[in-house]
Amino acid sequence: MRNYTQKIILGFIFIASFLLNSCDDEYLDNAKIYAEDSESFFNSETDYYNALVAAYDPLQSTFINVLMGEIASNNTLCGGESATDVPGYQQIDDMTHTPVNAQLQSLWSWMYGGVNRAAYIIEFQDKTDFPGKKGIIAEARFLRAYYNFELVKWFGDVSIKAEGRFVLGDEKTIPRSPKEAVYALIEDDLDYAVANLTYTAPEVGRATKGSAQALLGKVYLYQDKFLEASTVLKDLIDFGPYDLVTDYNSIFELAGENGKESVFEVQYLDVQGAGFGCLQCSEGNVAVGFQGVRGYEGTLFTSGFSFNVPTQEMVDQFEVGDKRKDVAILDIAAWANSTGAKYTTGYEHTGFFNRKYIPRKRSANAAGDLNLTNPNNYRAIRFADVLLMAAEAFNRRATPDDDIAKKYLNRVRLRAFGGPGFEVNSTDTNLRSAIYNERRVELVGEGHQFFDLVRTGRGAQIPGFVTGKNEVFPIPFQEIQFSQGNWSQNLNYK
Amino acid sequence: MRKKVSLLLFMFISLWATAQTLNVKGIVKDAITGDVLPGVSITIKGTTTGTQTDFDGLYSLSKVNKGAVLVFNYLGYKKKQVTVNGETVNVSLNESAESLDEIIVVGYGLQKRKDVTGAVSLIGEETLDALKPVDATTALQGTTSGVAVNLSSGSPGAKVNILIRGVSSNTNNQPLTIVDGYEGDLNSINPNDIESITVLKDAQAAIYGIKGANGVVLVTTKIGKKNRAPSVKYDTYAAVQHTTRKLDYLNATEYALVLNEAYAASGQTLPFTNVGSLGRGTDWQDQLFNDALLMNHNISLSGGGENVKYFISASRTQQDGIIAKEKSNFIRNNIKLNLGVDITKKLDFSLIANYFTSASQGFDGSLLFNGLNYAPTFGLNENDTNNFLGIEVVNPLSLLENTFGENNGNGIEGNFQLNYKPIDGLTVTTRLGYKIYNEKQRSFTPIQEYGSSKVYNQTQSSVYQFKATSIRVQWETFATYAKTFAQDHNTTFTLGTSVQNDLFDGIYATGFDVPNNSYEFADISLTNTQSEQRSINTGNGDIRLTSYFGRAQYDYKGKYLFSGLIRRDGASVFAKDKRVDNFWSVTSGWKISDENFLKDNKTISFLKLRASYGILGNLVGDNLYRSLLNGEGTYVFDGALVDGTAQGGLPNPKATWETAQKLDIGLDINLFDDKLSIVADYFEETRKDLLIQNFPVSGLLGSGAPGGANPTVNAGTSKNTGAELAINYKAYETNNASINLGYNVTYVKNNVTAVLDGAFVEGGGFAIGNLAPSRMEVGQPIGYFLGLVTDGVFQTQAEVNKHPSQNSLGATSAPGDIRYKDVDGNGVIDFNDRTNIGNPQADFYMGFNISAKYKNWDFTTYLYAEIGKDMVRNFERFLPNVNKPAYYLDRWTGPGTSNSVPRLTNDATNNKLFSDFFVEDASFLRMQNIQVGYNFSPELLEKVGLAKFRLYTSINNLFTLTKYTGFDPTVNGGAIGAGIDYGTYPSATQFLLGLNVTF
Predict the structure, then answer these.
(1) What are phi and psi of A245, to 5 degrees?
(2) Which B positions 808-847 lie with beta carbon below 8 A of chain A?
(3) What is the ipTM of this complex?
(4) Between the CA of residue B369 and those of B57, B393, B479, what are the distances in Å?
(5) Which residues 373-392 on chain B approach chain A with CB closer than 8 angstroms?
(6) Which helix (H) or strand (E) holds B235?
(7) Average per-residue pLDDT for chain B
(8) Which residues contact B859 (CB under 8 A, 6 or more apart)?
(9) Global confidence as pTM
């Protein structure tokens, strides 16, 4: 017995001491060998492609830019369920918004999420070589320009970092770059994209040379660089593969997605579920459900949250004979009368809905929450927009060419009225007003009006708008705090 | 031999015996368990005459004078004296729970209570017996100073949180639980198997290093005793459960009137034109709550021989929920085997094994939330098809019908331990602790429709399944050497090592289109294989720890005590250069009562001063230093989803664990022959490097992208200061009767002393669209509520005009609206006027208990109170048409009507902003338990062959005194975001009837 005991004990001591002498470091290091991390990535073309896909992903979160941008304008009222349904939207509609605004905070974070996803690729652009890499880098730079443009549109001066991702502490050291510097980086990125992309994308949904040119033209226009804008947009109109589709209505239906009028389109799909906890994670267009008719039951459409309801004033902008009116605006009472559809009314019910982007009947594959997963692509830059931008650029540049401007404008009007007889023949400032009006009705419901008004100095047309304040939105309250004095608040916000 | 001598003595003495002598015999038993006690010494008082009980607890003494006093003495039991009046003297001895010689577990060692230099609390078997907790953790509530226990919910099987000396960490405040030497959890253990629970509250826990900062709960389970006859026990109880509370909400008529008023105020058409016909309508709470059953069966066998001791038990606990019992319930089964064997005189082993299974069904809080908000005007089966109540409120009964979820677990845990004593004073121990836990979850979401565009609508059915195995292996080897030098210098040295590995391996999947839309078919194998949404994922975890530890204890004559200990821990979860650290503590004690000047003091029977100081760690977080590519980067190309690769949470290479500096000064006093014992402690803890998850950082860094998260940063320091006091008073004690009183109180004040960059951490949520209500911020307690301060209600437009503008809050104020204080005094009311409006953590928590015995009757009661805590009423959905709490009946309806409850209107107001209007004092006093038991007398039982037969009746949570208007002020948990009541599942009042039998 004694012998056994001693053997057992010796066994213990042996194993225990073995353990004590074995290398701790190795044991502790061994964990999680199977997980790849961000700094060891970009080892193959596939890695670059996958990172690029992820850089496109935050485009889907721009639903909030479109929805809130439209609510901010004089086109619509906020609506919703009640006066306190999404206070952030309600306040922006009334121009009573303050730096404390959850939706503005989201927009800020989501757009910077996009900037950093694109910058991640740019930061590692030299790590691994493969044929066609320039194209991927060009798309990444297009995307960064897209997100930065949204930021500068909404907030004015914002922080930028040309070389790559932002890291912890940058918010305290990198100042808000003046608008001009932000635009310079955007132009730089887009120049690269224009130079390295072609008019045909390898997959539907990816940016093309045309997308980059159109965005560049828009960026010039926002800076009143009309000559540059007219040049790049004319080049796009003359050499690009884009054209207006005949039937305005077809653009906004599923079959019309990614058509020949689409210069850049944000892609959505409804086969994956989504929830309110992470709206930016939805693969669907969240804005569509928000704009749907409350309690709707009937043909063609499905219900939604009745936000962003067009005003009578907006509806009255359509001239008699304009075929776009019934496409852009749903007069729910009339519709219910003719089809027997049922609906309920929400807050600020005007009787009108943004028909371009309200929910359609869904396929059997549609995943819930159906309100958050609508598959409607957002037609971010339409060829009609390009024509009107070009028209404006030619009209407003130092050496105006109103003939070209009229040509572009009337091309849009020809389609709108379904034939000749509605041409604009004025020049100079009258022509300019006509172009402005045309932009409003052609692009209603697409999130452009607020920014068009602001960039052309007409912000005061918006009820509640305070000149010298509301041209930009406030930097979110918390962001100012995080920057610890590095950033100051936009003028007249506190 | 000794017996024979005594016999001779008896015979000798008997020569002088008179005719009044008796031949006394009897049996000696444990008063609680009814076990027979062998080897109890029995002497006749004032003589040296005596005997011992035999293996069956029997004894006999011949020729004892009538009226003589027999003294029964047994190690670990209270001495008992009985006067001889007849020939049979049966005696029950009580274990001396409060005895100073009691041995308690202190982590890699044992100590006599009187020699303990740390702050330690002990819960004995009798407390667990009295409280009959479903989860043993609940037995710590109110019974232990310095320990607070919070339920996360009253739902059966819900997690119970323990807090030792307050909230120090913003993330993890759960103490380390060590069961018989292995790291375990209280919730998998059958409370009947527990012999004692020791709580280490101060720096003494530094022997557990990186896991010791939140305190340590040491559980010892029963293992039997050597040389005991087998004892079989059967315990059972059954209880009826009933909700502790229902909320006061409007009935149909009141509701309709209130709504009409709001519509009128906004100039809208009245929704109810015929209020008179509505009556009381449907009380949805009545529909949801039900009486429910709680049952427990427990059987055990224990005993021991010369070289063996054993304990075997089996138990089953079944608890139905007080809400929708068919879908909320909990079952736990346990089988326990503990075995100790002496292989040789120098070598022994023990085997501890606990097999457990659990099954529960539950639902999320939205059920009660809907129950409160759904209008009383609807009928039982009536859905709000017209969205009258908005899209987020649906018929709770319909919702319940569509709720399916179950959670099953089973596992085995325990320890295999060898002790070797090669030479006198040296013990070498090695043990392998293990816990294997298999978990299985399934939830089914059927196709459901509550009315157009309701958020709960589902057009497609889905089933989510989750299976995971967690394995923990822990191997510890340590040696303890005790030696006394020059008679008075006692030393003990401990040296050891520990290796631990925690593995997790799980698989999660969701399938769509469940056949027949039925739970019976809810299995992924039966779902649509073509569905693009079908998803599958795995989760892995591998946490490794290596540790070395040592302890030296020294005392001089047992009067001056010192100990010092150190532990070096390495943890795989941090970056290489941040992985290893040392933790240590020193403790000391001075037994003043052993000094000459107190030695023979009549009043003070024991007096000891203690002090401890040390550095401990709190292991939080995993892999924080790396940025993993686990973000969401899915987009649509060519009309189909394409998965990209994106960064997940932002990394922090500098992340390391939290450290705690703990100071404790304590005093143990026993007075009046140990009748009154007092334990008092003052403590301070500074918790540094608080690991703040999702540390708010600028959106600039990109964490707002899908699947992103903010980094976890060591970004805060908090300080807890407090004191605790425990008093025990044996008010009365005779052979037939006793009364014991116990009271304990703990005061803790928490203060955040630093947050990186002067930033703050937000959490919690209030209603929809409000700023986060809870914060961690310098100068405030962790998780305090930040909101606006109300200053009554505007009575007139003149008052509105006179007051600083409230427009910056989002809406223009009118008479009847809440007036907010201009806290920063800048003449404008805005969100900068938010300030501290409450603290979810109590200032004081206390327990009071009485236990009394009279002849065969016993009585116990436990009360528990928390004072100075606040909770947020967050179960109202602020929509015009939902039902409302009854306090709206006292709303403002015109000048002078109300200065607290605002007007009702459907217009935009600032009244629903987070303010002290929604924060309530949630201090409470709860009658946790009241119990009466009857023990049938041993004489009677002997005839039927039973050792013990006790019947009892008991009520848990009989009443709760509180001003709080929500369901349950005791439900709490967490740090930042604690105390926000979304309509929590309340605790149940339980009416028990129980039986204890020992064969």
Answers:
(1) -85, 155
(2) 808, 810-811, 830-831
(3) 0.93
(4) 59, 8, 56
(5) 386-387, 390-391
(6) strand B228-243
(7) 87
(8) B850, B851, B852, B853, B931, B932, B933
(9) 0.77
